[in-house]
Backbone:
DNA sequence: CTAGAAACGACAACTAAGGTGTCATTCTAA
DNA sequence: TTAGAATGACACCTTAGTTGTCGTTTCTAG
């Protein structure tokens, strides 16, 4: 394939590893993308999630892990817009899964917090996720999986940095 | 957090690795999802892609790697519907990036093939991807990256199998 | 060689997800 | 105190993708 010839010409004295590594990263990115779509499809079939980007699970997860946050704070750490998170927060509040509590730092921008019901729902979803996860990766070693997650996270951060640099 | 207590109770004699591994896989899945969104955001900013699921890049990549295929064949290996791929094929054909050639096995279902222009475009996009990839993962080792890609692929396959089992 | 089943192309809604824009209010910092 | 940034609220719109249908074509089994 012609595309394999792009980049440094291997007939020169340039380090071939530069290309090999770039290719490996590109492959990993494509693999991640494909994996995501399959995860999403599975999530939809199991009813675990409806969407991932502006999805409720990630939103609730942020609150469960980090405690009460303002809507803009949540939006900053999620791959979507402030308005989207605002709407999601309102929807979850309407379902009684989250509540707005006073923010000592800001009178208008309330803190969003999981209600008891919301925490229970999150635990339930998380348990479902665990149930699914426990049936997968049978051939894999836990240490390898953790290392994989760490590397994906690192790639993720790299992508984010480069993405933000483009403004 | 309460959610970390789901699954096997560690105070019993059950193997704690089962839970640890499931948790690791769940974490990996979430990491993959987040990474995907960041990759997509980067792709949009660079103009490299418009979408990934029914996107043109993956479509053309399939053709570049595997040679001429019918629309249903492409749809089977991509995370989207036959109709979507049909429409995409038509759009790409309108742009002169792919062409329909006679299929010896099937008179009506033509084979889709990259045109010279399409191949050039794909190479160009691939070069862009490589350019981006070459600036990332500086701290990572190529072997680790390849292993990571392999494990993600394995997870991806596991997810696919489980997803298909649910019909 | 046929009849029924499946695959295919084409087309048309329909939905979901999220982006974008705006405006009034509130906070922050010079 | 005042200019500028952050926030909540609301409305509109674009895009991606699904779903459904229909007529035709191809495959398969008897």
Residues:
């Amino acid at each position: 394939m012609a595309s394999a010839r792009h980049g440094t010409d291997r007939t020169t004295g340039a380090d071939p590893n530069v290309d090999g590594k770039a290719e490996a990263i590109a492959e990993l990115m494509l693999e991640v993308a494909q994996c995501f779509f399959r995860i999403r499809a599975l999530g939809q079939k199991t009813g675990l999630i409806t969407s991932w980007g502006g999805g409720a699970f990630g939103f609730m997860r942020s609150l469960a892990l980090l405690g009460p946050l303002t809507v803009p704070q949540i939006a900053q750490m999620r791959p979507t817009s402030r308005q989207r998170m605002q709407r999601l927060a309102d929807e979850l509040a309407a379902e009684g899964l989250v509540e707005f509590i006073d923010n000592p730092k800001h009178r208008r921008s309330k803190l969003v917090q999981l209600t008891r019901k919301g925490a229970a729902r999150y635990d339930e979803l998380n348990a479902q996720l665990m149930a699914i996860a426990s049936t997968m990766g049978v051939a894999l070693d836990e240490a390898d999986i953790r290392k994989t997650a760490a590397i994906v996270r690192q790639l993720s951060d790299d992508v984010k940095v480069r993405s933000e640099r483009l403004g």
User: Anything to note?
Assistant: The first helix of chain B runs from residue 16 to 46. Chain B has six helices and three strands. Residues 1-13 of chain B have pLDDT under 50 and may be disordered. Chain B touches chain A through 75 residues (CB under 8 Å).
